[in-house]
Design brief:
Length: about 950
C-alpha cells in the first residue's frame, strides 16, 4: 500500500506520542504510600517498650503547644534572612533569631521546588514526584494521611488565609478561610493585603488552635523581576512587620500555667538567580525555618543555623500538638524542639517517630530487614525497654541518665538511617509499562530509518506491506509470543501495572505495531556533500551527547557550536559558488540527496554583482548575531547566575537605552514581516506593535519620551488586550485566505499570502509575550530567516532535507537564546497572565507554552511557509515533513532509554524529567506541523 511521505510521518509521530505517553505513565513514580484510604490514629500508636514481666504503658506525651501559627512566605530564600542583608531585609526577625527563644534552621526542599508539592511535603512529610508539577496547575484534594486531617479529626480549629492551593488540597478542613489565586503573578500587592487584612481581628480571638498564613507577593516579585529587584526589600520588610505583629499578639495573650504558643516562619521553596523555581539549585532548595516559642531556651547570640530536611517539620508539629504522625511521612522530629521535655517524653517522641518510619519501610521495601536503619531501630527499642524497666523500678542514679542519653543517641541514628533509606526510594516505577513504551517507540524509530531511502526518493511515497504482514505466519507467532508474555507478567506481578489495566484491544493494537514486518527498502546510492555530512554528524552527535547529564544541563553550548559551524559551512558554499566555480550556462545541479528535486533550477537569477556580496555577508552577519544573542541571557546551570546584558538592560538606570532598543526592534520587525501581508494585515500589524510598546510602558519596562520614570506601574491589561484584537484579526485574515485557496480557488499566491499572514500573527503575539530585553532575539530571528532564505537557500539550491535540518538547528538554538534551559525553573510563568485580570487556566497554559517554545515554533512555521511557497514542489513538502518526524523521534527515543537505564540516579529528577517533557512537547508540535503539511501537499496548485 503506497502512502505519501507526509501521511506516513504523521502516523509514525502520532504512534510515537502514544508510546511515550505509556512510558511516561510508568516513569513518573507513584509516591511512597502505605495506603491512601488508611490513616494513623491515636489508638494505633504503639505502647512504650518495656522489658521484663511488668505491664507496659500506652501513655502518650502531653502536647507541647496550645496554639500554632504557621507563616509561610512563598519563595523565601535562606539568604534573605540568614545572609549578610538579613538584618536590613527583616530586622525584627533577625533579632528574634539572634536573641530570642527560637530555633533556626536551613530546611532543604526536594525538587520539584513548586508550591503544591512543597505544601504536600510540609503537611504529609512525604516526598512528592515530578508528576505533581503538572498537578500543581489544578490541585486535587489530598487524600493521603496529613497533618491538617489529623488536626481536624482531633477537633483542632484551623483558620487559613492565603494561597488557594491549600483550599483545594484540604476542602472542608478549615473553620474559616480566604483563598487568593497563586498563579496571577502580576499582582504582588493585593495578594498579600488580602491575607494581612484578617490578622487584627483573628489575633484578638481565642476560638482557634492553628492559624496558617501563606503569603505570595515575594514569589510574584521574583517571577516578574528576579531576586535582586528593588521590590524585594520592601516586600521582605512588609513580611517582617507581619511577623512582628503576630509575635507581639501571641506574647500579650500568653497566660501563666497554660501551654505555650509556637510561631513558625518558613518558605515552601527558594528562588533561583533568575527569580523562578522548580529545579534543584541551592537558592531554590534552601529555605529558612524559624521556630519561636517561650518553651525554648533564650539565645545569647547568633548561631549558625542547622540543616534539616523540609519534611522534618511535619512529624515535629504532629507530636508537638499531640497528634499521630502522618502515615507516609519520611521526616524525623527536630530534636531541639523537645529538649525541655523530660527524658522519658523525649524517648517516647523518638520511639513514635521510629515506629512510624519502620512501618512505612516495611510497606514500601520488600527487603526491609537488610536495611541498616531497621536493625538500628530494633536495638534502640530494646535498649529503650531496658531503660523503662529501670525507670519504673525507681532508679534515680546517674546510670539511668547516662543510659537514657545513650538510647536517645541510638534512636537519632536509627531515625536518620530510616529516613535516608525511604528518601532514596523516591517512588515505585511501573517497569513493565516503561519497557513496553520503550520497545514500541524504538520499533517506530526503526521503521522511520528503514523507510528513509524510499521516503526521500523522487516519489516521496512509502510502500507499507500491510497485506503481506497480516498474512504471514511469523507475524502471528510473534503476536502470540507477545500476548503470552503480557499474560504472564500481568498475572504474576505483585503490584498492578498500568499497561495491564488497558483493554485487550489497545494491547493488541500495540502488539501489531511491534510485530509488524520490516518495510521494503530499495536503497539507492546516496551522494553526500560536505554540508550533508555536517548536518548528519551534528544531529547524530547531539543525540549521543544526551548520554551525559552535563551536556544536558549545558545543551545550549552544543547548539551554539553547531550553529557557528553551520554558518562557516554556508560561507564556504557561497565562496565556492561565486568565486571558485566557473560560470556556466547550465542552471541545474546534480542532486546530493535522494530528496533533491532541483526545483530551484528555473528560478530567475537577479543581479549577481550585488547579491554575490550580500550572500557572502549573510553567514558572517548570522555569526555576529548569534554571538550577540548569547550575551543577552545566561542560561544552563553552571553560569546562569552570572550577570548578562539582560540584567544590564533591565536595571532602572538603563531604561532609556532599553526603550530605544525596543522601538528599533519593533520597527525592524514590522519592516521584515509586513512584506508578504495584505494591506489590512499591514495596518493591523502596525497598530499591534504600537500596542506592544504601550504594554511594556504600562508595566514599567520602557518609557515614553513624555513620561516620568517614577510613574506608577499598572498591569497593562487594556494595552495587552488591544494587541490581542489585532493578533486575532491577522490570524483570521490569514486563515480566510488559506481556506479560500484550498476550497474556492486554486490561487497559489493567495495560499502563500495566507500562510505568511498566519506567521506574522504569531510574530506579533510573540513580541507581546517576550520580555523587553528579549525583543532583539525575535528581531534577529526574523532578520536571519529573511537573509538566509533570500541569499543562501534559494541561491545555493539547497534541497528540502537540508533546509529542514537547518530550520531545526536554528529553532533549537533560539530556544536557548531566549534564556530557556532544560531546567524547569527557567519557565517564565508570568507571561501566562499578560492581559488577564485573574487566573484562567486554559489561556495561561497556552500563553506560557507559546512563549517558552516561541523560537522552535517560529522556525517551524517559517519552514512550513517556505516549503509550501509557490516555487516549491509538493515533493519537498513531504520531504520536510519526514525529516521533521525523524529529527524529533531520535532524541525522544534516546531519552527514554537513558531514563530507563539510569532511573535510580537522583540527577534524573532535576535534568531528565524536564528534558523528557520538553521532547514530548516537541513531538506533539511536530505532529501538528506534519498534519498541516498534509493539508498543504494535497491542496490545488497552479500549473
Amino acid at each position: 500500500m503506497k502512502v505519501r511521505t507526509s501521511v506516513f510521518a504523521t502516523l509514525i509521530l502520532m504512534s510515537e506520542v502514544i508510546g511515550i505517553a505509556l512510558f511516561l505513565r510508568g516513569f513518573f513514580p507513584v509516591p511512597i504510600k502505605s495506603s491512601l484510604a488508611s490513616k494513623n490514629s491515636l489508638s494505633d500508636l504503639p505502647a512504650e517498650p518495656l522489658s521484663g514481666s511488668s505491664p507496659n504503658t500506652t501513655r502518650l506525651p502531653h502536647p507541647l503547644f496550645k496554639r500554632v501559627v504557621i507563616m509561610l512566605v512563598d519563595a523565601l530564600r535562606d539568604d534573605f534572612l540568614f545572609g549578610p542583608n538579613g538584618g536590613t531585609f527583616m530586622p525584627y526577625t533577625r533579632h528574634v533569631v539572634e536573641r530570642s527563644s527560637s530555633y533556626s534552621f536551613v530546611a532543604k526542599a526536594r525538587p520539584p521546588t513548586v508550591t503544591m508539592p512543597r505544601i504536600k511535603a510540609l503537611t504529609t512529610g512525604s516526598i512528592p514526584g515530578f508528576i505533581d508539577v503538572v498537578m500543581n496547575l489544578n490541585s486535587p484534594a489530598l487524600l493521603e494521611d496529613n497533618l491538617i486531617w489529623q488536626a481536624k479529626t482531633a477537633e483542632k480549629r484551623i483558620i487559613f488565609y492565603g494561597d488557594d492551593t491549600w483550599v483545594r488540597l484540604f476542602p472542608k478542613h478549615f473553620m474559616e478561610y480566604d483563598g487568593t489565586t497563586s498563579f496571577f503573578v502580576s499582582d504582588y500587592t493585593e495578594v498579600d493585603n488580602n491575607v494581612t487584612r484578617h490578622l487584627d481581628s483573628t489575633l484578638k480571638r481565642d476560638d482557634w488552635d492553628i492559624l496558617i498564613l501563606h503569603y505570595l507577593g515575594l514569589d510574584h516579585i521574583g517571577h516578574i523581576s528576579g531576586p535582586y529587584s528593588s521590590l524585594i526589600q520592601p516586600k521582605l520588610m512588609e513580611m517582617d512587620d507581619v511577623l512582628k505583629k503576630i509575635h507581639g499578639a501571641l506574647i500579650s495573650k500568653e497566660a501563666e500555667g497554660s501551654l505555650p504558643y509556637l510561631l513558625v516562619l518558613c518558605g515552601d521553596h527558594g528562588m533561583s538567580e533568575t527569580g523562578s523555581h522548580g529545579g534543584s539549585s541551592e537558592p531554590e532548595v534552601n529555605t529558612p525555618l524559624v521556630l519561636i516559642s517561650p518553651a525554648f531556651k533564650r539565645k545569647v547570640g547568633m548561631e549558625k543555623p542547622g540543616v534539616i530536611e523540609q519534611v522534618d517539620l511535619a512529624p515535629t508539629l504532629a507530636l508537638g500538638l499531640g497528634l499521630p504522625i502522618s502515615q507516609n511521612s519520611v521526616g524525623r522530629v527536630i530534636p531541639g524542639v523537645f529538649q525541655e521535655s523530660s527524658l522519658r517524653d523525649q524517648l517516647r517522641f523518638l520511639h513514635l517517630n521510629g515506629h512510624q518510619l519502620n512501618c512505612l519501610l516495611k510497606d514500601s521495601m520488600p527487603s526491609y530487614e537488610k536495611e541498616a536503619g531497621f536493625e538500628q531501630y530494633r536495638v534502640a527499642e530494646k535498649a529503650h525497654g531496658n531503660w523503662m524497666k529501670l525507670y519504673f523500678e525507681g532508679n534515680t542514679s546517674e546510670v539511668l541518665s547516662n543510659m537514657g542519653k545513650k538510647v536517645l543517641k541510638q534512636y537519632l541514628e536509627a531515625l536518620a538511617a530510616l529516613s535516608s533509606a525511604l528518601s532514596k526510594q523516591l517512588g515505585k516505577y511501573d517497569m513493565y509499562s516503561m519497557i513496553a513504551g520503550m520497545v514500541f517507540v524504538f520499533q517506530l524509530l526503526m521503521i522511520l530509518l528503514l523507510a528513509m531511502p524510499e521516503a526521500l526518493s523522487a516519489d516521496a511515497a512509502v510502500d507499507l506491506p500491510v497485506a503481506s504482514a497480516l498474512l504471514s505466519l511469523p507475524f502471528y507467532l510473534l503476536c502470540l509470543l507477545l500476548a503470552s508474555v503480557h499474560v504472564l507478567v500481568c498475572t504474576s506481578a505483585t503490584s498492578s501495572c498500568y499497561y495491564c489495566t488497558l483493554s485487550w484491544g489497545l494491547v493488541f493494537v500495540s502488539m501489531l505495531g511491534v510485530g509488524g514486518s520490516p518495510l521494503k527498502t530499495n536503497v539507492s546510492e546516496w551522494s553526500l556533500s560536505e554540508l550533508d555530512v555536517l548536518l548528519l554528524a551534528g544531529t547524530v552527535g547531539h543525540t549521543l551527547s544526551l548520554a551525559a547529564s552535563s551536556f544536558i544541563e549545558e545543551e545550549h553550548q552544543t547548539w551554539y557550536f553547531l550553529l557557528n559551524t553551520l554558518c562557516l559551512a554556508m560561507f564556504q558554499d557561497v565562496c565556492r559558488k561565486y568565486f571558485r566555480e566557473k560560470s556556466t550556462s547550465k542552471d541545474e545541479e546534480d542532486c546530493l540527496l535522494p530528496s533533491k528535486d532541483c526545483w530551484n533550477s528555473a528560478l530567475p537569477q537577479p543581479d549577481a554583482s550585488s547579491e554575490k556580496w550580500l550572500a557572502l555577508a549573510t553567514p558572517i552577519f548570522t555569526l555576529v548575531c548569534c554571538r550577540l544573542l548569547r550575551s543577552i541571557n545566561q542560561t544552563g546551570v553552571q553560569w546562569a547566575h552570572l550577570p548578562d546584558v539582560g540584567h544590564w538592560l533591565n536595571s532602572s538606570e538603563h531604561r532609556t537605552v532599553l526603550s530605544l532598543l525596543t522601538v528599533f526592534c519593533l520597527v525592524l520587525t514590522y519592516l521584515l514581516v509586513q512584506r508578504r501581508c495584505s494591506w489590512v494585515s499591514k495596518v493591523a500589524l502596525a497598530f499591534g506593535l504600537v500596542g506592544v510598546y504601550s504594554y511594556r510602558a504600562a508595566v514599567g519596562n520602557v518609557i515614553f519620551p513624555w513620561q516620568h520614570s517614577s510613574r506608577t506601574m499598572s498591569k497593562g491589561t487594556v494595552e495587552a488586550r488591544f494587541v490581542y484584537v489585532f493578533v486575532l484579526g491577522i490570524l483570521f485574515s490569514g486563515t480566510k485566505d488559506l481556506l479560500r485557496s484550498q476550497i474556492i480557488t486554486a490561487d497559489a499566491k493567495l495560499k502563500s499570502r495566507g500562510l505568511w499572514e498566519i506567521y506574522s500573527g504569531l510574530v506579533l503575539l510573540a513580541s507581546l509575550l517576550f520580555r523587553a530585553h528579549n525583543l532583539p532575539v525575535l528581531c534577529c530571528c526574523l532578520l536571519i530567516q529573511t537573509l538566509i532564505s533570500q541569499f543562501i537557500w534559494k541561491k545555493l539550491h539547497y534541497d528540502a532535507a537540508q533546509i529542514t535540518i537547518m530550520h531545526y538547528w536554528f529553532g533549537q538554538a533560539f530556544f536557548y537564546f531566549q534564556g530557556n534551559s532544560n531546567n524547569i525553573a527557567t519557565i517564565d510563568i508570568s507571561v501566562g497572565f499578560v492581559g488577564l485580570e485573574s487566573y484562567v487556566e486554559a489561556p495561561a497554559i497556552f500563553l506560557t507554552a507559546l512563549s517558552t517554545y516561541a523560537g522552535p515554533l517560529l522556525w517551524t512555521c517559517h519552514l512550513v511557509c517556505y516549503l509550501s511557497s509557490e516555487r516549491h514542489s509538493p515533493v519537498s513538502v513531504g520531504h520536510g515533513c519526514y525529516c521533521l518526524a525523524l529529527l524529533r523521534s531520535v532524541p525522544a527515543a534516546v531519552y527514554i532509554v537513558l531514563v530507563t537505564v539510569l532511573r535510580y540516579h537522583l540527577f534524573i529528577w532535576s535534568v531528565f524529567s524536564p528534558k523528557l517533557l520538553y521532547e514530548s512537547m516537541h513531538l506533539l508540535l511536530t505532529a501538528g506541523v506534519c498534519l498541516f503539511f498534509i493539508t498543504m501537499e494535497q491542496s490545488p496548485r497552479k500549473s
